[in-house]
Amino acid sequence: MIDIFNFPNNDSNFDIFTTNGITNSWQIWVKPKNTKFVKILAIGAGGGGGAGWSSTLNSGAGGGGGGAGAVVTGLYPANVLPDRLYIQVGIGGAGGRNRGDNGGSGTVTSISTNATTSAVERILFANPGTLGGGGSGSVAGFAGGGAGVVTDTNLGKLGINVYNGGAGGSNGGGVTPTPGGSVTISSIVTGGAGGGANNLSSTGTNGGNITGAGFVPTISGSPTIAGFVADGSSGYSSLPSINSSNRTPMVFTGGAGGGANSSSSTGKGGDGGNGAFGCGGGGGGASNFSTTANGAGGNGGNGLVIITSW
Predict the structure, then answer these.
(1) For residues 213 and 289, is the Cβ–Cβ distance under 8 A?
(2) Where are the alpha helices (DSSP H) in 124-280?
(3) Is 2 a member of any domain?
(4) Cβ contacts of residue 243 below 8 Å, gap of 6+?
(5) How far is it, in rounded angstroms, from Cα 193 to Cα 63?
(6) Number of domain units in the chain
(7) Among 119, 202, 275, 294, whose CB has the most other CB atoms within 10 angstroms?
């Protein structure tokens, strides 16, 4: 369409960028005409949860939940930014699959003046959450760490930026046994909860919860049972849309933990839930039925970029 009068296009003033596949190629944002200010929100990807332990007639610990990505915002006068920005959204870490496997850390979310992560061309940079540890026959899976803060010293100074580190996940349950650790909401992104454990007597425990607050519901870990355990629930997501009547504040949560299998003759532990945008995956539950009966860790949530211009 020919822009005869140079009017701004209000339909293009709110842009959401998510990952665009395994190759995660750069995406392009074009500054609308007559724009005076640009607000950018960038969230790093979450870490994957660790797998629970499983072994024939032996105790097992739960996997730890993955950590959350950093949340970074920037406000800029439009005239200090180029007409195009290049965006690469972080990919969430994979959950651990086999018994005792660690999850994978997420990857960085970057906004740059060119298709490069070079510090001299970065506008914003949101670090990822780190991996949750796999459980063992004696030690609980460790919690993934929340993303650290990276303060850009070059083009980041063009605007007013706020850098917030990510929240950590929770430990898996220990072989006493103890339940997987739960997570409380302290930011717009959270880590994942821990997976449940069992002891030599096949006494199992539940996966940890993401404890709700206000309008955010509790995301429940799966309870321990004798047999095939249900998976922990995936994270809560409230993603805004310019065309939506939903005005709920934007909040994302990690995945809940998988419960332990309390049978020594059949079934498997529950898998951890997947994290929502920027959040950690839940830890997998343990089993003492066989060496392949563990619950897998949940995947970390992919990153996110939202650009608003006016």
Answers:
(1) no
(2) none
(3) no
(4) none
(5) 9
(6) 1
(7) 275
Which residue, 129, 68, 142, 138, is CA-closest to 102?
Answer: 142
Cα–Cα nearest to 206, from 268, 143, 286, 96: 286
| One-character DSSP codes across 101-138 | --------EEEESSSS--GGGEEEEEPPPPPPPPP-SS
Buried b (16+ CB within 10 A) or exposed e, 277-288: bbbbbbbbbbbb
Token pair recorded at residue 101: 């496997």
- List CB contacts of 2: < 8 A, sequence separation 6 or more: none
Residue-level pLDDT at 12 = 55
Is 8 inside a domain boundary? no
C-alpha 285/C-alpha 175 separation (Å) is 12
Distance CA 122, CA 231 (A): 40
Has residue 274 been placed in a domain?
yes
Q: What is the residue type of 196?
A: G
- pLDDT less than 70: residues of the chain: 1-12, 22, 153, 241-247
Residue 91 region by backbone torsions, left for phi larger than 0, else alpha for psi between -120 and 50, else beta: beta
Degrees to nearest 5, angle at CA 39 with 22 and 252:
55
* φ, ψ for residue 225, nearest 5 deg: -145, 170
Phi, psi of 58 (to 5 degrees): -145, 155
Q: Is 65 helix (H, G, I), strand (E, B) or coil?
A: coil
Question: Exposed, middle or buried by CB within 10 Å (0-12, 13-18, 19+), for 24?
Answer: middle
- As a whole-number percent, the residues of the chain with pLDDT over 90 amount to 83
Six-digit token string for 86: 């290049």
Closest CA to 51 of 195, 200, 168: 195
Prior bond to 177 cis, omega within 30?
A: yes
- The residues pairing with 88 across neighbouring beta strands, listed in sequence order, are 110
Tell me, yes or no, if the pTM score tops 0.90.
yes
Q: For residue 224, how many other CB atoms are within 10 A of its CB?
A: 28
Domain contains 281: yes
For residue 62, give the nearest of 72, 74, 53, 75 by alpha carbon: 53
